[in-house]
Specification:
33% of the residues lie in helices and 35% in strands. It has 166 residues and is an alpha/beta fold.
């Protein structure tokens, strides 16, 4: 999406991460915690938090390469000793959640994705991890009136949700 915005293929898009690439302008509209997801009976389930080292020692259900959550996990694994044991890869978050629920392995998801899933425990990382989503467009590009209105609407909606505590 970043490349498509930069090349002018699309006017704007949603990008993930804490850093916005040079040449793009953006506004953050969501920050959500990335949590370790484990079956409710797992030994991490009652913990307040888990280290990345302990988490990566477990069998892992990961997103396929090319997805932001996989890139983040791969980056975190690079700095740790040992070889992680990836037992399943998919591009479907619902399948990740189901496989975790059934005890196939552990994974990372956004807290909101498992909030209503009683058989999956969400455990914070130590230190905590967050996903930032930005609406982005070319810094020197033209944004139509409709696109500017959409950005304003999105930011107003998110502001209203934050004020309501959602």
């Amino acid at each position: 999406i970043q490349r498509m915005i930069a090349s002018g293929e699309i006017d704007m898009g949603v990008i993930a991460g804490g850093r916005v690439p040079e040449g793009l302008q953006s506004r953050r509209f969501l920050r959500e915690e990335i949590v370790a997801c484990v079956p409710s009976g797992h030994h991490f389930a009652g913990r307040r938090n888990v280290s990345m080292t302990d988490f990566l020692a477990e069998p892992l259900v990961l997103f396929k390469k090319g997805y932001y959550m996989r890139e983040l996990t791969d980056e975190l694994m690079r700095d740790l000793p040992g070889e992680p044991r990836v037992v399943f890869e998919t591009n479907l978050f619902s399948l990740v959640r189901s496989l975790v629920r059934e005890g196939v392995g552990v994974s990372t998801l956004l807290r909101m994705v498992v909030a209503d899933e009683p058989r999956v425990a969400a455990v914070s990382f130590d230190p905590p991890l967050y996903l930032d989503l930005h609406i982005a467009w070319k810094a020197d590009g033209y944004l139509s009136r409709a696109n500017r209105a959409f950005v304003a609407f999105l930011l107003e909606l998110v502001g209203d949700l934050e004020e309501a505590g959602q």
